[in-house]
Amino acid sequence: MSGLIGKKIGMTSLFDENGKNIPCTVIEAGPCIVTQVRTKEVDGYRALQLGFDDKKTANKAAEGHAKKAGTVAKRRVVEFQGFEDDFKLGDSVTVEHFAEGEFVDVSGTSKGKGFQGVVKRHGFGGVGQATHGQHNRLRAPGSIGAASYPARVFKGMRMGGQMGSEKVKVQNLKVLKVVPEKNLLVVKGCVPGHKNAYVTIQK
């Protein structure tokens, strides 16, 4: 799937032709520089490696890799397959790769929420009532295992733990607006990540 690397700017809303308020996300998509071209003859498959957002400091390996494309080292480098046009090293891929009305998949890293209990993490109801001698049990998980048999906790038991900071892909988001002069892409709905988080947009 062809696509671009972008940065989540934030959320807003637009009105459609019927006056309905639509929540949407604004993404700064590109311009991305082609830093490597994968070919069938050399690599066994066809793909483009795109780089986005200049690095202020980089090691020699990253600088040398970017120098071949006539650019500087990039913060984010992602490979995409499925580009129909022939791009060369150093070419720029802009937000005009997308068109209004088409559907895209956006993937990114969700917001990290730290260690959370079962009520927030899995939607448990808690004990519910503080009667009959309950003390500090309102958000407790309750029983997690059986008796002398099987005398263990089953794998996959829903318990408290690390929540968020995972790779998430949201599929079939409609492109509401493309603003080429500002490299902006407006998609319907929400995408994973905090503000200024890197995201990958795929057709």
Write down the Rg. 23 Å
What composes the largest sheet? 6 strands, antiparallel, barrel
Q: How many strands?
A: 12
What string gives the helices and strands in order?
Answer: EEEHEHEEEEHEEEE
**Shape summary:** elongated
Task: Output mean pLDDT.
Answer: 91
Q: β content, as a range? A: 35-45%
Question: Could you name the key traits of this structure?
Answer:
mainly beta, 203 residues, 8% helix, elongated, single chain, six-stranded antiparallel β-barrel
Outline:
It is built from three helices and twelve strands; from the N terminus they run βββαβαββββαββββ. The chain has 203 residues and is mostly beta strands.
Helix and strand topology:
Elements: E1 3-15, E2 21-29, E3 32-38, H1 40-43, E4 47-54, H2 60-67, E5 74-80, E6 92-93, E7 103-109, E8 114-116, H3 118-122, E9 161-163, E10 167-179, E11 184-188, E12 198-202
Antiparallel strand pairs: 1-2, 1-12, 2-11, 3-4, 3-6, 4-5, 7-10, 7-12, 8-9, 10-11
Could you walk me through the main structural features you see in this protein, from its secondary elements to its overall organization?
- With 203 residues, the chain is mostly beta strands.
- The protein is 8% helix and 40% strand.
- The chain has 3 helices and 12 strands.
- It has helices at residues 40-43, 60-67, 118-122; strands at residues 3-15, 21-29, 32-38, 47-54, 74-80, 92-93, 103-109, 114-116, 161-163, 167-179, 184-188, 198-202.
- Strands 1-2-11-10-7-12 form a 6-stranded antiparallel β-barrel. The protein has a 4-stranded antiparallel beta sheet with strand order 5-4-3-6.
- The protein is elongated.
